[in-house]
Backbone:
């Protein structure tokens, strides 16, 4: 179990691609490091600048080298983040995304039937790209 990094410059740097084997090892650490009341965590949030993340809203889904390949719709969503405790921002997110990842043979679809999961996937992939929720803050 690793401690979550708080408001660190590492969160603003894009992560490096990872081998499937290393990604599986990182996933084990992510699962052990995810606080009980959290819905997602990215490797760079625990000091590992590699492209692996975990979404757990509601079921745990590990994504190794994920990439959003399709997206549509939009919604405003109030987001929080483990790395910025007690902060939240309104973001504008897609309501449906399709993701490819090295550890899944088929593309994964996340959508309106579970908007929290869909937003969480986008939030965690953003982390891997060096983007925080503040970079996505909705501006009227």
Residues:
């Amino acid at each position: 179990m690793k401690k979550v990094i708080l408001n660190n410059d590492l969160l603003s740097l894009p992560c490096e691609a990872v081998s499937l084997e290393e990604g599986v090892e990182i996933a084990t650490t992510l699962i052990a490091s995810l606080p009980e009341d959290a819905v997602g965590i990215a490797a760079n949030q625990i000091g590992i600048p590699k492209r692996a993340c975990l979404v757990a809203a509601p079921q745990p889904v590990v994504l190794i080298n994920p990439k959003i390949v399709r997206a549509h719709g939009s919604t405003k969503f109030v987001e929080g983040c483990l790395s910025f405790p007690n902060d939240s921002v309104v973001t504008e997110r897609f309501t449906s995304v399709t993701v490819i990842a090295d550890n899944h043979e088929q593309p994964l679809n996340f959508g309106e039937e579970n908007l929290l999961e869909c937003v969480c996937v986008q939030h965690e992939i953003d982390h891997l790209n060096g983007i925080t929720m503040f970079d996505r803050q909705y501006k009227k």
